[in-house]
Amino acid sequence: MKQIIKNGFVINPAQGFSGKADILINYGVIERVAENINDYDAKVIDAENMIVAPGLVDLHVHFREPGYEHKENILTGSRSAAKGGVTTVLCMPNTNPPIDNAALVEYVINRGKKAGLINVLTTGCVTKGQKGEELTEMAELKESGAVAFSDDGRPVSSSGIMRRALQYANMIDMPIMDHCEDLSLVDNGSMNDGFTSTYLGLRGIPKSAESAAVSRDILLAEELGAKLHICHISTKNSIEAVRAAKARGARITAETAPHYFALTDKACDGFNTNAKMNPPLRDDEDVEAIISALADGTIDAIATDHAPHHSDDKRIEFEKAANGIVGLETSLSLGITYLVKTGRLSMMQLIEKMSTKPAEIINCGRGTLNVGAPADIVIFDENEKYTVDASTFASKGKNTPFNNMELYGRVHRTITGGKTVFSL
Ligand SMILES: [Zn+2]
Description:
Elements: E1 2-12, E2 17-26, E3 29-34, E4 43-46, E5 51-54, E6 56-61, H1 74-83, E7 86-91, H2 102-115, E8 119-122, H3 138-143, E9 149-150, H4 159-171, E10 176-178, H5 183-186, E11 191-192, H6 195-200, E12 204-205, H7 208-224, E13 228-230, H8 236-247, E14 252-256, H9 258-262, H10 284-296, E15 301-302, H11 331-340, H12 347-361, E16 377-387, E17 406-416, E18 419-423
Parallel strand pairs: 1-4, 1-5, 6-7, 7-8, 9-10, 10-13, 11-12, 13-14, 14-15
Antiparallel strand pairs: 1-2, 2-3, 5-16, 16-17, 17-18
Helix pairs in contact: 4-7, 7-8
Zinc ion binds near residues 152 and 179.
């Protein structure tokens, strides 16, 4: 029952600690963190030359169950997470049917437990059937285990409904995770409006389709003192709105996804449907704004928006292709390659954005290596280079724009509650 992770370089943002240390795990809980722990009853895991960090917490995944199991299911999604060093995920509710009642919330949680690899948490819908008309029974969803509300995949278009949702969620102390999109501005666009869309002859989506919705919802939440989490932020103006709201003391948090700091809309060239996502990839100015906002704390978290699709949904014309990419197995490497190796974020900051902060946003009691915390741990080599090979993904989805790219940072072992759920 006892294990010691020895000789690793431990990073624990919750206590601002980084340094050489051993970690003693007993009955799935962290019992001691100190130099040179020896216990003859314990199994030793050697982490020489590795970083030992709290397991990653991903606030935004699509595990597609129920309804779209040909794209992913909770077991394959869990395997994909474990392979990427992710020990806790928050599922978005745009399944079929959408997670808009207590029975479905319990279903997802139970399927996660049955898979038994990582902590599978779920959101519940803001509105019934994600139709944007009638609020769900939010208190019941919370009681059955939902940790946040979202209509992700779709925006809550009516300001009035959104205001009532925020009011109600606030009464029961739950955050709303906001997919910000003004559909009247999207107007059937399929990629970012700019040089590349013009060159490819594709209808563009203006940046204001996101930032106008972000601004509206910040104003609504602020007026009510409600908690609002902005999902997959992608534009400079959205970031400016979040930064200003935070400065005023509003209870706003925000996440971005690795593709928004690693790629621009140029990746859509050649009608590359693996670079099609929602919100769309933006341009250099936005990438720079995102990286600065991660560094200065305006953006709290990095989430993957893990969105596996069957190849049939991607091997079609760009306009008709599905949005999204497989994210869980490349997120840590993309963070290391594009943020840490470039000197923009420290490793401590990266782990904070990928584990400690997201855990705080949903208050799930994880994302730390503190004594007494569940032993959710990732062990990785930040300097190991490897080439992404989508055919080896544990996810059912192989849709990634990062295939064949060389990245830094390889996960060697993932531990959830003391149990090794992935090892190289
Ligand atoms: Zn979304």
